[in-house]
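Folding follows sequence. Below is one example:
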Amino acid sequence: MAISEAPVIWFDGALVPWRDARIHVLTHGLHYGTGVLEGTRVFDTADGPAVFRLEDHLRRLERSARMLRLPLPQSTGELAAATVELVRANGHRECYVRHFAFLGYGAMGLDMRSSPTTTVIASWEWPAYLGGEPLRLKTSSWRRNDPNSVPPAAKATGPYLNSALARREATDAGYDEALMLAADGTVSECSTENVFTVHGGVLRTPPAAAGALEGITQDTVLALARDLGVEVRVESLLRSDLYAADEVFVCGTAAGVVPVGSVDDRELPSAPGDVTKRLADAYRAAVSGEDLRHRGWLTLV
């Protein structure tokens, strides 16, 4: 999906013109995947643009950097202020925000200690990543990274090669998204979204032990489900659990809450089903500020 360029990018503490935010070809993160990232969204509310769960995203960025032993020059408070500054400067009412910290130019080789950290925040207008129509999922031949080799709690750049290969395989075969399994064959997640099933009114999603990222949108959905009185379980799922489910949906910052129509050509009974629709409506109310119980999730610009 093409990027709609904005006027400026926050680059190591300064707002620079979009096309001037450049790095050297020998940047460490470019060669070795030594970077961490976050995707955040700004939504239009009655009180103006608001970043959704900004503090949670930035805390995860800091935690990811710490797990990779990647020095982060700015505090989460400084990055929060920079995010608001950037969105204001670009004049966005709604947009996607990418926070990105990576080892820059300074040394080559696997030794990470001599390369400085570069920090970037970019914002651009980006519609929902997967659209709103029910998705066709295909189980990928690529397995999710083993949690003992790459920590799933770290949202790092290098492991996304795994996701890119799975997504390419699925779309080349005519599907919308890839369903990825863990090394033991249990369900992990999609290429960039967490996955949920509904069976008998119970909402289930795989745990981090399956290699799934502990998603902030996933956490949002779980909280909203509890608000609605829906029973939730974070537990292992088999691929056949998705085939037998009453409803399946995926969620992520870029995608939102999106129903699944079929898994490996097995049609779901309803897409979207009742629980999926209720949660999608609750999510829209939360991000727009209409649900006053969760106004604390919003950072006004």
About this structure: The chain has a mean pLDDT of 95. The helical segments are 28-32, 54-67, 76-90, 160-172, 216-227, 239-244, 274-288. The longest strand covers residues 35-45.
